[in-house]
Structure prediction request, 327 residues.
Amino acid sequence: MTHLQAGLSPETLEKARLELNENPDTLHQDIQEVRDMVITRPDIGFLRTDDAFILRFLRARKFQHFEAFRLLAQYFEYRQQNLDMFKSFKATDPGIKQALKDGFPGGLANLDHYGRKILVLFAANWDQSRYTLVDILRAILLSLEAMIEDPELQVNGFVLIIDWSNFTFKQASKLTPSMLRLAIEGLQDSFPARFGGIHFVNQPWYIHALYTVIRPFLKEKTRKRIFLHGNNLNSLHQLIHPEILPSEFGGMLPPYDMGTWARTLLDHEYDDDSECNADSYNTPAKDTEKDLSPKSMKRSQSVVDPGVLKRMDKNEEENMQPLLSLD
Prediction:
């Protein structure tokens, strides 16, 4: 075991060897092979190429050198192409701070039975008057940056649960193709995290319709890890034990405290709202949303044509079986 594996438990070391092809005898050589590829992309500013940083990309791509380098390049390219998103990229930024305090994202105290961190989002908590969807994405990315420092999570990964209860049609109309593309690129294509499952619960019919629209733009591997449970929490419990879930998900624990993760990131600044005045909210982020010009999703700014949605049977969801796909 090298010093780069010092933060891993014996069980996780074995998992890294078996599932990710991580070999302590060739670890430094693997890292160097990825680093040597940096010169092939002079158009990208690689701001970090240290061993520990490159290692998380190798783990995310099961030590396939070229795939790890491509992810590394996309990580920095995404930041170059969306500069406004990463200005004031810190927990105390007004928009990010308010999103964090509303539980975007939340993190459960207990890991699942695979050692994965469970992230939770309560979609209806979004306060459109105080921060934008871009701010929510920034808060999620910032949180992942902090969490991925843990080598255990680099190997074991994450699970995401999104509760769509009380998420309105008006809120859903803000999920434009450009916004969704920005999120897909930031989370699926440009970040070194392993997501073992993305669970939708209590999703209304229009979220199900929206998912069918974006599904073609997701990688097959991502699609296999998305589970649409609807109101069937028993199917969720088959994959994540209720003993570690809060009551909102039919679990045995008390209701989730939305400020738990925010207090971890913000510490003593959690209750300091001096930066959060009405004039300072989200002007750069709003401009980012307005100026997005997707290359691949060339549709109108409405994800699904409202006329089509209105013609859909609003009771359709009740008849839909959860789309469970065990990997």
The chain has a mean pLDDT of 86. The radius of gyration is 20 Å. The beta strands are 106-107, 117-122, 158-163, 195-201, 226-230. The CA atoms of residues 132 and 286 lie 7 Å apart.
